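Tokenised fold entry reproduced for absentees:

. . .
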Amino acid sequence: MKPVAFDEAETYEPEEGWRRVSMAGSDRFSFEWFEKPPGHSSPMHDHENEQVCLCLQGELTVATEDDSVALQENDSVLLESNETHRVENTGDERAVGLDVFAPGRSFDFWTDREE
């Protein structure tokens, strides 16, 4: 067993109100909890990992090059490997979500990025 206490987990917070927290996972899958302030959007990007994005609180819009979907509390979406996408908080309040990646990825994806 490999527990991860939320308050002690590795965190990436490049902007006020946008935070990601590395949760328990392995090389087969990984979990990242995140929060986004109203209006925050990730840039269009892709990665080799499949991704499930679950909206826990607020509302999120997940857009690909061809489509978009609005997620409300407890809604989720699957993004295929290398599918270009972005995730945006389209609501008026903080949005909270959980991303699951397969295969798992190291949190270095965030912490070793060049700003």
In short: The mean pLDDT is 94. The chain has one domain: 24-105. Residues 108-111 form the longest helix (4 residues). The radius of gyration is 13 Å.
